[in-house]
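TICKET #2291
ISSUE: user wants both folds in one file
ATTACHMENT 1:
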Amino acid sequence: HAHCQVRYATPNDLPGARALMLDTFHQDFGYGFVPHWHADVVDLQGSYLDHPRHTLIVAVHGDEVIGTTAVNSSGPAHPPHPRHMAERFPCDSTAQLLRVYVRAAHRRLGLARRMVDLACAFATEEGGYNRIYLHTNTDIPGAEPFWRKTAEEVFDARPTGEHGPGVSTVHFEIPMPARADAAGPTA
């Protein structure tokens, strides 16, 4: 999408990012805003812009925010996720990707891939992260195939998965990219 820009969010982007997230909860997920799950959306500034190890990435078309991707320093919470996932991806050393959403009219144009690439670069360059983790709702059309091209499955929590019981969730890990300053000769 040549006319779209993918970049780190600014305070001016936050109302549009919040609207996209809320629309996604209602239209795509079908359950709306759940305060316990979506507390970060209430305070995007404090959750992502003011925290040095977190970030919010947006895709913008003109002045409209049409995509979001966030990074925070938390792993999967137990409960509701299995204890072994919380132990594998501990808070502070895990960069969790979340809020990877693109407006329906702009999907399948590579925007999510571009946002995820920038999020992974942030996680690598920020320092202190050992792993990049995410989980996805497989009921959302296109979500699971996208992540299967991007990440490695580590646990299928769906009731039909070999490990069941669970919900329509699959957990993934993205291999940490090499740090830009790690390559090349040393003095």
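ATTACHMENT 2:
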Amino acid sequence: MKFIIRGGILIKILILGATGRVGSYVLNKVLQGDHDVTVLVRQPKKIMSNQRLTIINGNVLNKEDIAKALSGIEVVISALSTDGTTTLSNSMQLILEDMNKRAIKRIITVGTAGILQSQTDPSLLRYQSKESKRKSIWAAEEHHEVFRLLSESDLQWTIICPPYLSSGNFTGYYRIERDFLPQAGVAISIPDVADFVYKQVLSVDYINSRIGIAY
């Protein structure tokens, strides 16, 4: 799926989770590329206005809000996080349903390294294996459900799976690996994750893949 520049606008993108810890960086990065961007947020005041940005006040669990946000969109970026509920997986079902209705094919999501394959036991995901040090697996289970939903869809999806997210600076230098976390990778900065997310908007290299990313 090649993307074509039209009238100076590369592509029409919807960003979900744009006020979050990762999503806010993704939004800033995408806007640097002169794209036509839409965000669906519950608190519009948290978003600074921009001439290339359309802000929709709504909720990802509301079908009508999702439909409004997806109108005219070509690529979806989800940086939605887990909140101790099933909001992430429930909203993804609504998003995928409406994307299918509109024949929108491309979706990029930010997941967690826990849903990559375990290096020590590749038959398991990291959060299911001894590699995981987290006491709670709730967030990983929610991201696992999103992975399942995407895997069973006909969409062109990419899940970017970082380990510990630091608030460090942008470097532009990081390692990536399909299905696994790069060996000995333990952290990466949010700006570098946002950089890789943005690169996937114009790339077909990692279609239908989970990508581990770390220093």
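RESOLUTION: both attachments delivered.
EXTRA DETAIL ON ATTACHMENT 2: The first helix runs from residue 23 to 31.
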